[in-house]
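Backbone shape codes:
===
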Amino acid sequence: MTEKHAEDIAEVFHTPLQGTYNWDYRIQDNRIKRLYELGKELNWNVEMDIDWNRPYEELKEPFPIFWDNYPPYQKMSDEKKVEFLNGPKVV
């Protein structure tokens, strides 16, 4: 470890192996930020992966979904199922 390294160290801890931890993420040559940006790029991103300009079409009849095995959903009329699947009205 050099004197330059020591300037960047915020905490030194001792274990059977000596290690250091730097709490100032700004000086980690942007590796953490690059990792974060890569994570956003490679995962599902609601801002990029959904076309929010696409018109929304309300359902006219229920269709089989995972709710079919849920007893309260099974008890609903088809009309109530359609209302449930369409979600709340946005005004």
